């Protein structure tokens, strides 16, 4: 019996989102567009209908990309669980870091905030562009592929959406030293084990210098692994804990970077963060200020 294509496609995986829920397996979501807060669950948030549905020329559709995302994500869940169970005194295995790195690359390119740039990169495909020259188009006969065929493929709905799953391989194929980046990673844990970090629809908070570079997009970033663990990657690894104001600054940065939604398990905490976000005046200095705090932390040698 033919499988009916799925419709509800999450750009933030539900398994990941469960790291931010309360004891009732739910959380509160702030909608920037509607300026309102509502209660829901990972099933009912951070998704778009038919986001990964591919429509073919004859009008048929397929959700094969959604199946691919589910398969790729599942390879990372054991490592994500290992990291989420870790403490400041338990070392994290390199393999778990590598799996998380690939998960973050896949996540980066599927986020709604990067949709327009993926579209621009698709226009450069098969033209020898250095950014994405690690995949090519060849004919079975060995002859040059006709220009009209290339254009038809590049302009197809299937290719544009599939490119989001090709871009994550860029660091592995273009940078022989990609693994060295993991040496700068530092995991920050909340002191009381409470859920102090929130999540948004653009949760990889970057400095903005390399966001659209397939090879270097994750050179410097801050990412909430769960409500109690934050991953910090800077070009000079931090060597000590962050000051209390950093937690607030990061959470407001999540709201600032979000296209529309941010979520937290505690409604009152989320309400206070929204008020502070408004008080900052949306000046564009929130994220820079967060990285300034990290820059000012003394650099030293810590075990990796």
Task: Characterise the protein shown here.
With 304 residues, this protein is an alpha+beta fold. It has one domain. It contains eleven helices and twelve strands. The strands form four sheets. It has a four-stranded antiparallel sheet with strand order 3-2-12-8, with helices on one face. A four-stranded antiparallel sheet has the order 7-11-10-9. Strand 10 and strand 11 form a beta hairpin. Helix 3 crosses helix 4 and helix 9 packs antiparallel against helix 11. The longest helix has 17 residues. It is globular and about 65 Å long. The protein starts with 7 loop residues before the first strand and ends in a 9-residue tail after the last helix. 33% of the residues are buried. The C terminus is likely disordered.
Structure class: alpha+beta
Approximately how much beta-strand content do the residues carry? 5-15%
Largest sheet: 4 strands, antiparallel
Global geometry: globular
Number of domains: 1
Q: What is the number of helices?
A: 11
Helix content class: 25-40%
Order of helices and strands: EHEEEEEHHHHHHHEEEEEHEHH
Give the averaged pLDDT, no decimals.
89
Number of strands: 12
Separation of termini? 51 Å
Unreliable runs: 299-304
Strand order of the largest sheet: 3-2-12-8
Report the C-alpha radius of gyration, rounded: 20 Å
């Amino acid at each position: 019996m033919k499988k009916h294509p799925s419709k509800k496609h999450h750009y933030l995986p539900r398994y990941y989102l469960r790291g931010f829920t309360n004891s009732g397996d739910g959380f509160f979501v702030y909608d920037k567009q509607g300026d309102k807060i509502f209660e829901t669950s990972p099933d009912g948030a951070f998704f778009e209908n038919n986001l990964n549905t591919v429509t073919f020329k004859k009008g048929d559709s397929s959700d094969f990309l959604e199946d691919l995302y589910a398969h790729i994500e599942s390879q990372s869940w054991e490592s994500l669980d290992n990291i989420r169970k870790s403490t400041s005194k338990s070392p994290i295995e390199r393999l778990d870091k590598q799996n998380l790195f690939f998960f973050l690359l896949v996540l980066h390119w599927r986020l709604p905030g990067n949709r327009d740039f993926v579209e621009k990169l698709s226009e450069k495909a098969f033209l020898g562009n250095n950014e994405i020259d690690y995949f090519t188009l060849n004919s079975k006969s060995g002859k040059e592929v006709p220009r009209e065929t290339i254009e038809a493929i590049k302009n197809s709905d299937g290719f544009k959406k599939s490119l989001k799953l090709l871009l994550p391989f860029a660091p592995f194929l273009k940078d022989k030293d990609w693994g060295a980046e993991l040496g700068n990673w530092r995991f920050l844990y909340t002191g009381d084990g409470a859920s102090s970090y929130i999540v948004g629809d653009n949760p990889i908070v970057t400095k903005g210098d390399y966001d659209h570079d397939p090879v270097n997009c994750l050179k410097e970033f801050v990412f909430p692994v769960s409500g109690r663990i934050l991953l910090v990657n800077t070009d000079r690894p931090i060597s000590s804990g962050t000051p209390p104001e950093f937690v607030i600054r990061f959470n407001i940065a999540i709201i600032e970077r979000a296209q529309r939604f941010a979520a937290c398990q505690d409604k009152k905490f989320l309400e206070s963060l929204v008020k502070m976000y408004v008080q900052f005046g949306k000046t564009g200095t929130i994220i820079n200020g967060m990285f300034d705090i990290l820059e000012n932390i003394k650099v030293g040698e810590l075990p990796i």
